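Researcher: Let's do a round of design. I'm pasting the structure tokens now; please hold your answer until I've finished.
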């Protein structure tokens, strides 16, 4: 069933992304059929790496694509699960409601929706971002100087939204899982007028569950609606809105202490949680977007996108700090706080792309302008009783009483603006030589204060991009590329002057292949990534911290594979090895990042029983560590987690899927990004009944 859905989604995506010359006619009902030979674990093309529509083999940068089929097969229902299955990306779950991501040794802060950047100017990702709204998710590793105005040389994550399909389609599913998980998901698309020039699509998700963690109980509601209208022969308007809310009880703020007062490592039950019974963290995100595209003629197209996002959070939290005593407990202290935040972002993007003739050959060109304004207002109401010692094991039983949150108040109020002009061109130098080049010129400014510290920053920079692709034959190509990016920062040095921006560079080279008529994409790359002038606290002047800029460099190689290995066998797999991640002094830095990761997801349709599909997933990472003091280091040994899946197509419309995660019940920490952590989920499973039309 899920395979059938995947086929439908794959086919409809092609229809939705049809070339401009086919978009002039009204939408028509199309019946889509498919077999296991369809390219369900890979993509024909992507615009995520260079503003131009290119195949993966033609793109001179490392790209992984997580398709709808892969997400459905392995129940990758949130972005953490998607990125944890992706080549070269690590998911740092520091708490139950906040997450960081890293790639090639550095934090991932670049996120896009349909190729339009959403600046992460306020830090990490909060809540549980659902993936039911997306046809696929592209991950471009390294700096992405053409697509992103600012950021780190790590990776860019591009969410490709579902759009109305060419004909009527519908699906629904019910999932029941471990810890009383219940998930209902619906997706329907249909034309909205008789001629088919107006079509709409709606997606609805409701999920609730308890947890393996004591007292933790998350739930979320997701709703998405999009309408696409053919206003004229050459003009199309798309308008959509997303509503997503996360409600968490018993959420962690901070995590578990990792060593005792005698220096020995702590060991807790997997279910250990430092939250109080009254702890909660609620987030609500509303995103509205409008996209207008117009075909000018001669293959030229102009497109404008306007987006408005509001993100609100409201929480009552308990942070537990200190060093516990191994015998008798105690040694931990309470820090209760009530936190509210209101973030608003407005984004505009206009681009023009098409082909031009030069030297007797056709070349590609894209240029445009983007603008963003982000505002944040937040306030912390500190609770009475900060610093109170928690005797015995009361830090872990949820019994700390809810205080009044009137001890003191602090907060933030600041605004960030960014203006970007971009230009990209792909020159067809010869039948087997292509050059992708361009630049991105950005001005970024911020004003305001955060918890008594100025957030002022102002910087302008033009970053280049150049990539060369040589077609060895019809299936294989070699490539090399260099791209740069920057990120302003507000931290000050000892003289009170804001530090210069962080500067990132990525140089890589490799081989790519599109095998079996493009049904299987493979790539291998070596890379070198630098991130210079990152703020690091260097000392204090009175009550104020001052910073210095530090440099780091990573080197390594990676392999990526996605698509059909044979008629019945699909796979998505990747290996990344950081051979070096060091600072100016040559010493290893960011040791919480595994130096080697392996990701494998594969499914097989049983030839003698084509209604049955089975598969497995493997995620392995090498040892990680974090220095707690000069003499104490916490180490998470290398580990692997195994997942299994099976799906049986009951009839044309109905299917049953079973998924099992962490089959070996491996106990391990979620992250060593901070000096606290908690344990990942033990063995768990789910069953999903799916219907499609």
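Researcher: That's everything. Go ahead.
Model: Designed sequence:
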């Amino acid at each position: 069933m899920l395979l059938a859905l995947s086929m439908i989604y794959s086919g409809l995506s092609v229809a939705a992304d049809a070339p401009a010359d086919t978009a002039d006619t009204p939408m028509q009902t199309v019946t889509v059929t498919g077999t296991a030979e369809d390219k369900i674990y890979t993509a024909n093309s992507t615009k995520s790496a260079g503003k131009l529509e290119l195949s993966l083999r033609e793109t001179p940068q490392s790209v992984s694509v997580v398709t709808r089929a892969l997400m459905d097969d392995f129940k990758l229902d949130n972005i953490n699960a998607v990125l944890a299955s992706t080549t070269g990306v690590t998911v740092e779950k520091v708490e139950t409601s906040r997450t960081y991501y890293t790639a090639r040794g550095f934090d991932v802060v670049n996120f896009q929706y349909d190729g339009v950047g959403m600046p992460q100017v306020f830090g990490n990702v909060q809540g549980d971002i659902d993936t039911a709204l997306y046809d696929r998710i592209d991950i471009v590793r390294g700096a992405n100087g053409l697509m992103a105005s600012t950021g780190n040389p790590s990776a860019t994550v591009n969410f490709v939204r579902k759009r109305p399909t060419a004909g009527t389609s519908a699906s629904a599913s019910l999932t029941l899982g471990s810890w009383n998980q219940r998930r209902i998901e619906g997706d329907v698309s249909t034309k909205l007028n008789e001629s088919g020039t107006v079509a709409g699509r709606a997606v609805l998700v409701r999920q609730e569950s308890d947890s393996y963690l004591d007292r933790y109980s998350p739930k979320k509601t997701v709703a998405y609606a999009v309408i696409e209208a053919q206003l004229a022969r050459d003009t199309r308007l798309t308008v959509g809105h997303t509503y997503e809310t996360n409600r968490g009880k018993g959420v962690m703020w901070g995590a578990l202490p990792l060593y005792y007062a005698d220096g020995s490592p702590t060991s807790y039950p997997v279910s250990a949680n430092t939250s109080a019974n009254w702890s909660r963290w609620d987030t609500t995100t509303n995103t509205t977007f409008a996209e207008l595209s117009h075909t000018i003629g001669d293959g030229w197209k102009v497109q404008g996108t306007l987006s408005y996002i509001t993100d609100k959070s409201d929480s009552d939290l308990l942070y537990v700090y200190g060093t516990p005593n191994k015998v008798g407990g105690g040694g931990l202290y309470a820090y209760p706080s009530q936190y509210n935040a209101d973030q608003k972002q407005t984004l505009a993007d206009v681009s023009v792309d098409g082909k031009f003739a030069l030297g007797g050959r056709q070349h590609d060109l894209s240029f445009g302008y983007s603008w963003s304004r982000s505002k944040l207002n937040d306030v912390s109401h500190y609770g009475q009783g900060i610093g109170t010692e928690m005797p015995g094991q009361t830090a872990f039983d949820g019994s700390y009483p809810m205080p009044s949150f009137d001890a003191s108040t602090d907060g933030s109020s600041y605004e960030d603006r960014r203006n970007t002009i971009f230009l990209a061109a792909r020159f067809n130098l010869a039948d087997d030589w292509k050059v992708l080049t361009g630049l991105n010129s950005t001005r970024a400014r911020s004003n305001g204060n955060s918890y008594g510290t100025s957030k002022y920053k102002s910087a302008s920079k033009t970053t280049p991009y150049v990539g060369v692709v040589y077609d060895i034959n019809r299936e294989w190509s070699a490539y090399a590329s260099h791209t740069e990016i920057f990120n302003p920062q507000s931290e000050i040095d000892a003289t009170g002057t804001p530090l210069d921006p962080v500067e990132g560079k990525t140089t890589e080279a490799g081989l790519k292949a599109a095998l079996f008529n493009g049904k299987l994409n493979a790539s291998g790359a070596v890379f070198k990534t630098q991130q210079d002038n990152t703020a690091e606290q260097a000392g204090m002047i009175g009550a104020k911290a001052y910073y210095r800029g530090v440099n780091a460099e990573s080197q390594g190689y990676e392999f990526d594979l996605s698509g059909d290995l044979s008629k019945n066998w699909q796979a998505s797999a990747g290996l990344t090895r950081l051979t070096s991640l060091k600072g100016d002094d040559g010493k290893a830095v960011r040791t919480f990042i595994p130096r080697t990761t392996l990701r494998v997801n594969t499914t097989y349709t049983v030839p003698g029983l084509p209604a049955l599909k089975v598969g497995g997933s493997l995620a392995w990472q090498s040892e990680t560590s974090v220095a707690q003091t000069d003499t104490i280091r916490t180490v998470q040994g290398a580990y692997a987690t195994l997942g299994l899946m099976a799906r049986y197509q009951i009839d044309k419309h109905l299917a049953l899927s079973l998924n099992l995660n962490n089959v070996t019940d491996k106990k391990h920490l979620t992250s060593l990004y901070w000096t606290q952590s908690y344990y990942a989920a033990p063995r768990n499973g789910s069953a999903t009944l799916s219907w499609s039309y």
